[in-house]
Specification:
12 strands; 14 helices; six-stranded parallel beta sheet; 2 domains; six-stranded mixed beta sheet
Length: 338
């Protein structure tokens, strides 16, 4: 985002506007944290800012300030459509293709609102008048902090904004473990703590959410864990029947894929989760080093993301999806052995 863009956005925001802020479908900590952080900031400028999420999200994200104001498109479609029609500005956060917001995509595409994208995923689509895209960033929350800084308004960051942005950075960096965590990330985290983010309390709010059923489901996932040593690959499967057995709730499988990646000698891990509701197999991919799961997911599973973290889907059944996954590994033998 260049200086001219910032100048134009400052002019746009110089008077109160009707604004809608949108995260991706099945929003995670970064998506909810960035949208809430931006909403709190915009309200300080007397804007009418509303967050519309495509659908619901895990309970462990529902402690954040003003989370209860978020509308869900799949539950409140008429109200949401009216807001999208009347919106003067639409911010899209933590995604870069309208396909990532499901049924909302058409409504956003046809809206006459000025669209502003803030996102850190690869290969952004060209739907926004203003695009702030940086794949080197740890998270969209880090980018929202930078966006506020570009507008010269970091003095407006209060405890609520700081708590939301801290949450997204923390969750998207695996508690600052991932390689996307830079010295600048830590500097911003320090500033957010100074602004009132209670780091210990936030970690506890996110992490202390395990139920007995989730632990049982994790046990089942680990018992289903398979490794393919010749390709330094591990994968986990979970069927709909297994999810039902352990009273699965949205967000319960968060982080399961990382157990495969934690194995010695493994640099590529996947989890395949059957969803009868969506009639697909949901796929999460993780890697170490230079092996790009973004490229693999885009090529074979209608997804994408980052070099080391991506998602996708399959319309095949669970067994056939796994068979397809195994069958494409020889195409990446050189990269996986490097």
């Amino acid at each position: 985002m260049n200086k001219e863009d910032i100048k134009n956005i400052k002019e746009l925001l110089s008077s109160p506007k009707e604004i809608v802020i949108i995260p991706h479908k099945n929003p995670d900590g970064d998506a909810i944290g960035s949208t809430l952080g931006l909403m709190h900031y915009l309200k300080k400028g007397n804007h009418k800012a509303t967050i519309i999420a495509p659908n619901d999200y895990p309970d462990f994200l529902k402690w954040m300030p003003s989370e209860d104001s978020i509308l869900k498109y799949d539950q409140q479609k008429d109200d949401c459509d009216a807001l999208l029609i009347s919106a003067e500005i639409i911010f899209t956060l933590d995604f870069n293709s309208l396909g990532r917001i499901g049924d909302m995509g058409d409504a956003v595409a046809t809206s006459e609102a000025i669209k502003i994208m803030i996102d850190h995923h690869q290969q952004p689509d060209d739907y926004a008048q203003f695009t702030y895209s940086d794949v080197s960033m740890s998270s969209t929350c880090e980018m929202v902090y930078n966006f506020i800084d570009m507008l010269g308004d970091t003095n407006k960051i209060d405890e609520d904004i700081a708590s939301c942005l801290y949450t997204g950075i923390m969750t998207d960096t695996g508690s600052f473990r991932f390689s996307s965590t830079t010295s600048e990330t830590h500097k911003i985290i320090g500033k957010l703590i100074e602004k009132g983010a209670n780091n210990s309390q936030i970690h506890n709010s996110i992490m202390d959410t395990n139920s007995y059923e989730r632990m049982q489901l994790l046990g089942r996932a680990l018992s289903n864990l398979k490794i393919i040593p010749e390709y330094r690959t591990a994968y986990i499967t979970l069927s709909q029947e297994e999810l039902n057995t352990y009273n699965y709730k949205k967000g319960d499988t968060e982080g399961f894929v990382n157990y495969g990646l934690s194995l010695k000698g493994i640099i590529f891990a996947a989890i395949f989760i059957e969803s009868h509701q969506d009639n697909i197999i949901k796929i999460s991919l993780r890697s170490k080093g230079d092996f790009s799961v973004n490229e693999l997911s885009r090529s074979h599973f209608e997804g994408g993301g980052h070099t080391n973290a991506a998602g996708g889907k399959s319309d095949l059944n669970l067994k056939d999806t796994v068979d397809k996954f195994i069958s494409i590994l020889p195409n990446y033998k050189k990269d996986l052995k490097a």
